[in-house]
Specification:
The complex is a heterodimer of chains A (about 280) and B (about 625). Among the domains of chain A are: about 30-105, Ubiquitin-like (UB roll) (Roll), CATH 3.10.20; about 155-205, Alpha-Beta Plaits (2-Layer Sandwich); about 225-280, no CATH class. Chain A contains seven helices and seven strands. Chain A has helices at about 50-55, 110-125, 130-135, 155-165, 200, 250-260, 265-270, and strands at about 30-35, 40-45, 80, 90, 100-105, 170-175, 180-185. In chain A, strands 2-1-5-3-4 form a five-stranded mixed sheet, sandwiched between helices. Chain A is globular and about 70 Å long. The N and C termini of chain A lie far apart (about 80 Å). The relative contact order of chain A is 0.09. Chain B has five domains: about 20-130, Glutaredoxin; about 150-360, 3-Layer(aba) Sandwich (Rossmann fold), CATH 3.40.50.11540; about 370-455, Ubiquitin-like (UB roll) (Roll), CATH 3.10.20.600; about 460-545, NADH-ubiquinone oxidoreductase 51kDa subunit, iron-sulphur binding domain (de novo design (two linked rop proteins)); about 560-615, Alpha-Beta Plaits, CATH 3.30.70. Chain B has about 625 residues and is an alpha/beta fold. The model of chain B has no long low-confidence stretch (mean pLDDT about 90). In chain B, a hairpin with a 6-residue loop joins strand 13 (about 410-415) and strand 14 (about 425). Chain B is built from 26 helices and 19 strands. A five-stranded mixed sheet of chain B has the order 12-11-15-13-14. A four-stranded mixed sheet of chain B has the order 2-1-3-4. Classes of the chains: A alpha+beta (about 280), B alpha/beta (about 625).
């Protein structure tokens, strides 16, 4: 029988074969891909990030929220696809899972890129706890750029939150390049804004400030250990600020209090925001 | 009067009618009036010529035609006298009468208006003998010399819309796509994707509504190929779009043109209206049952809107920001429908392919890429302008043979290809054939065809700084890597230019540039570090001189140079003293002057004013 090529989906690469590479078809509308060597079958329209998380693989994100449309702005979630010369990085939150896709989530190139991206983030908003944590996680121990001390990294979470979840659309991006920022139309109080606070709620940077002792450098390093400092003194976390409780405020306040002559017990009771639950 | 063209017969009849009408005029004077020509006064020239024709009572003998740009910017405005075929350069309105009375009536050639070949020093009469034109292969731009962009008749007269008739009446969509594939035409917008395959994807996408878009958002500084085509010959792009739409099954087309091109907008708008009036656009074209309509969208001038997904967003009224591909526009594009986007030059190549056949077209270029490409040759080149050559022509051929080498006394140093996100290629790569793949290998890109020639008075670090500045402002700002990365790259390069660079800056530059290239979403970010990477690759010594020796070898970076007066050459004329805006030069008449470096702002006025050339840069 005469050999018939399957209908081409791409131009044959390099002309080495008579037919373009055949693609495995997965039954029932799912797509099959490998992530870090693990086979996974997911529904169509699933992103690579979701597929990886389904496998329990961790990919860092900053501008991603499961309840909002993927945006692909922070680029932290980059993964490597393709082989040889054609290998490239794509943002896994926006890249759709495709049949036969081979994804690698932690190659040298990926890690190097993420490190540099974290360093860039650090130079924008060194006072953000989330970013300091990311720096700690990726072992970024220096910042070679001039710090800007800004509050916004333009991840766009608030914009999407306002539009998609609050059905408002009171804020959006304006300008491009260096002049890009998030604001209300014409920088005036928007009638659409109900001051619901949704934007603040999703912000990964401005709401959660590093409150620890101010570090001598932009990389504070206090969080490198990732241990809650309160548990040195108490049996449980002492903080309102999320589950990690690593802000370190209490420790520094205690120290100050003790130095100014207070007794240990007195200082600790005065400075804890919450009584330990017994 | 204008008759509607309903069948192929009508087109042929129209062509004959127009040819006959033209024959009534024994003489035709063509004046190039593209934007560049208008800037040099061709508008007044056209008026003066028309008045002179009237004044001399030649209205029935001489046809005055204003066309688009002829490509040779240096000699604008150009007047072409037919049937003699004589070309006059830099014609002023007051020459109009002379041309008519001497050349047209008495058949005398006006020597003073002829072009002088700088190499042989001889006067050249005919366009095809000028070296700038001689070495070119003008498939697309040739029509600019012949066609009045405001008249569809002119386009029909040179065989316009015959390709559309051929495609609609003699071919089927598959055959058109086949022909496009055979031609090995690759997208002229920069990415170089094979056009035939692109059409095929879009044709395969299942949808009742599809779109074709003509991308005329040309944002590269110093590049104007698309503008020139839209201004000079708008119908060719329109015809190409109609053929493409027939091939992929679209019924609607959009031309996305930047608002900064007022003449292009006007001409293409007129062209669309004319084609609609003649029935060459609209319902049931040539009685084939194929209908196609075109709208014009004006862009607000963001560089990033040349990227196809950003362009689609912009057309939809959203922010001009790129989106993730896949899904590719061929699957889900404008309004969620399959969309095919090609650049003006690509569309304009299509009628030629259909008329002459894909194989013919493919033979012109290289093995991987067929046809010709228009480059806008600018910078320190003796002859600047639009240059159309077969793909695969060497840089040397373009810069030396066509461009006439370096302007002035300097030496060739580098050529920057592909617009702001292209790379700088040094002297030893001058024999490189210009092709999508070879340029990419050398660290540059073909881009949409910008070509900036630089001589040894150019500082490569300063060049990198210039392009980074453009890119950091034109990045849409969505990706952290591109927005923040280009800004930081700029800051580092700026620091180096100011003499505050550190040795580890070069490593940081390379590291950051690689990350920006790797992790950005769209073509802008992925190519943005090219100016830095290519200059670092080929001109690392210059960076090192800035950092280690605190010296700018080309004498450009203001913080690193000083002006010094040569005591032996200075004649003490006090001219520089008078010109200096900050009174940094002191001295007395007929005595050697001195520059106070602390006061000096390095504006260079003194160097220009010094007659004996006694002031130099260290």
């Amino acid at each position: 029988m005469k050999h018939i090529c399957p209908p081409a989906t791409r131009p044959p690469a390099g002309g080495t074969s008579d037919c373009p590479p055949e693609r495995k078809q997965t039954p029932r509308g799912g797509v099959r891909l490998t992530i870090d060597g693990l086979d996974v079958t997911v529904d169509q329209q699933t992103s690579v990030l979701e597929a990886a998380r389904f496998l329990g693989l961790e990919i860092p994100t900053l501008c991603h929220d499961d309840a909002l449309t993927p945006y692909g702005g922070c680029r932290l979630c980059v993964v490597e696809i393709g082989k040889g010369d054609k290998a490239r990085l794509v943002s896994s939150c926006t890249y759709p899972a495709e049949d036969g896709l081979a994804v690698r989530t932690n190659t040298k190139r990926v890690v190097r890129t993420r490190k540099m991206l974290v360093e860039l983030l650090l130079s924008i908003a060194p006072s953000s706890k989330n970013i300091q944590d990311l720096a700690a996680r990726f072992g970024v121990q220096r910042n070679r750029f001039k710090p800007k001390y800004e509050d916004c990294i333009l991840c766009g979470l608030c914009v999407r939150m306002c539009r998609e979840q609050m059905m408002s659309g009171a804020i959006d991006f304006v300008g491009r390049g260096q002049k890009r920022r998030i604001t209300t139309p014409f920088d005036k109080k928007s009638d659409l804004c109900r001051t619901c606070g949704g934007c603040q709620y999703v912000c990964p940077v401005c709401t959660l400030r590093c409150q620890g002792p101010s570090a001598p450098t932009d990389v504070c390093g206090s969080c490198l250990t990732m241990e809650p400092t309160c548990t040195d003194k108490f049996d449980e976390y002492m903080c309102y600020l999320g589950p990690t409780g690593v802000c370190g405020t209490c420790v520094s306040e205690n120290k100050k209090c003790e130095e100014s002559g207070g007794t240990k017990e007195l200082c600790h009771t005065a400075n804890t925001t919450q009584q330990p639950r017994r | 009067m204008t008759a509607t063209i309903k069948k192929l017969k009508d087109l042929t009849r129209e062509k004959e009618r127009i040819a006959k009408a033209r024959e009534a005029y024994p003489f035709c004077i063509t004046i190039s009036s593209g934007t560049c020509g208008l800037a040099k006064g061709s508008g007044e020239l056209v008026k003066a010529m028309q008045a002179a024709v009237k004044g001399l009572g030649l209205s029935k003998k001489v046809l005055v035609k204003s066309t688009g740009c002829h490509g040779f910017c240096d000699i604008e405005p150009v007047v072409h006298v037919a049937p003699q075929g004589i070309l006059y350069q830099k014609v002023a309105p007051e020459n109009a009468k002379e041309i008519l009375s001497e050349t047209v009536l008495r058949n005398n050639v006006l020597d003073k208006l002829l072009y002088t070949d700088p190499r042989s020093g001889q006067k050249v009469r005919y366009a095809q003998e000028i070296p700038f034109y001689k070495a070119q292969r003008r498939l697309l731009t040739k029509a600019n010399d012949l066609v009045d962009p405001e008249s569809i008749d002119d386009y029909i007269a040179i065989g316009g819309y015959r390709a559309l008739a051929k495609a609609l009446l003699e071919m089927n969509p598959e055959k058109v796509i086949d022909e496009a594939k055979k031609s090995r035409l690759r997208g002229r917008g920069g990415a170089g994707f094979p056009t035939g395959f692109k059409w095929e994807f879009c044709r395969r996408a299942k949808s009742d509504v599809k779109y074709v878009i003509c991308n005329a958002d040309e944002g590269d500084p110093g590049a104007y190929m698309d503008r020139s085509l839209l201004e000079g010959n708008p119908h060719s792009a329109l015809e190409g779009m109609a053929i493409g739409a027939f091939a992929i099954g679209a019924r609607e087309g959009i031309i996305y043109v930047r608002h900064e091109y007022p003449l292009a907008v006007r001409n293409i708008r007129q062209a669309v209206a004319q084609a609609k009036r003649r029935g060459l656009l609209g319902k049931n074209i040539f009685g084939s049952g194929f209908s196609f309509d075109v709208h014009i969208e004006r862009g607000a001038g963001a560089f990033v809107c040349g990227e196809e997904t950003a362009l689609i967003n912009s057309v939809q009224g959203l922010r001009g920001e790129p989106k993730q591909r896949p899904p590719f526009p061929a699957v889900r594009g404008l309004w969620g429908k399959p969309t095919n986007i090609n650049n003006v030059e690509t569309w304009a190549s299509v009628p030629i392919i259909i008329n002459k056949g894909g194989d013919w077209f493919a033979r012109i270029g290289t093995e991987a890429s067929g046809g010709t490409k228009i480059f806008s040759l600018v910078g320190k080149c003796a002859h600047t302008g639009l240059v159309e050559v077969p793909i695969g022509t060497s840089l040397r051929e373009i810069i030396y043979n066509i461009g006439g080498g370096i302007k002035g006394e300097g030496d060739f140093k580098a050529v920057q290809t592909g617009g702001p996100s292209g790379g700088c290629l040094p002297r030893h790569l001058i024999d490189l054939p210009v092709d999508y793949d070879t340029l990419a290998k050398a660290g540059s890109i073909m881009g949409s065809g910008g070509m900036i020639v630089m001589d040894d008075s150019t500082c490569m670090v300063d060049v990198a700084k210039y392009f980074l500045n453009f890119l950091r402002n034109e990045s849409c700002g969505k990706c952290l890597s591109c927005r923040e990365g280009t800004q930081r790259l700029y800051e580092i390069v700026e620091r180096i230019c100011e003499g505050n660079g550190k040795e580890e800056d070069l490593d940081l530059l390379e590291e950051l540039a690689q990350v920006v290239k790797d992790s950005s979403l769209c073509g802008l970010g992925q190519t943005a570090p090219n100016p830095v990477l290519s200059t670092l690759r080929y001109f690392r010594r210059e960076y090192e001189a800035h950092i280690k020796d605190k010296r700018c070898p080309a004498g450009v970076c203001k913080s690193l140079i000083q002006y010094v007066i040569d005591g032996e050459k200075c004649i003490g004329c006090t001219l520089c003293m008078k010109q200096c805006p900050v009174n940094a030069i002191t001295g007395e008449l007929k005595k050697v002057h001195k520059v106070d470096s602390d006061k000096c702002i390095r504006c260079g006025v003194c160097v220009e004013s010094c007659k004996p050339k006694a002031i130099f840069v260290v």
